[in-house]
Amino acid sequence: MTLKIKSKLFSFLKLAGFIAACAAASFIVIAPLWFFATKKPGLYSAAVLIAAAIFAALKVAARAKKAGAKKSLFFAAKALTVAAGFFGAALSLMNWQRILFLASVAAAVVLYQVVCRIEKRSSGRR
Questions:
Q1: pLDDT of 2-51, one tens digit each?
Q2: What gap in Å lies between CA 56 and CA 84, rounded to an integer?
């Protein structure tokens, strides 16, 4: 009976240790980001945008290496269209301009469709 209690206690302590380690690790990662975002929000936003742009550039480069230049060009055009649509939508929402928000979303959807149709025509599919 005591062996069973020790086993359950050890399992509970392992679980508690795991939860504490996760909490500590998340605090170590999140606390500096939170401090940076609250003290210098403009710099934080710029850093996040730069990191996102670097990530997108790396994805495009990996796609170009794998698929070839033509497909990569269309992938980049689609990605830029979506990114521009999100950027325009976010910027117009932050400025409380709902009509511009709708226009930027509609323009992004239309441009994306145009890029897809050009891609289909250039590859010979209809």
A1: 667 778 888 888 999 999 999 999 999 888 888 888 898 888 888 888 88
A2: 13
- CB-based contacts of 88, cutoff 8 Å, min separation 6: 100, 101, 104, 105, 107, 108
Residue 102, token pair as written in the block: 């709708």
- In 88-100, which positions are buried (b, 16+ CB within 10 angstroms) versus exposed (e)? bbeebeeeeeeee
64 C-beta neighbours (distance < 10 Å), count = 16
Q: Whole-model pTM?
A: 0.47
Interior/surface letters 40-56, b for 16+ CB within 10 angstroms, e for the rest: eeeebeeeeeeeeeeee
Closest to 85 (Cα-Cα) out of 62, 57, 114: 114
Which residue has tokens 């240790």? Answer: 17
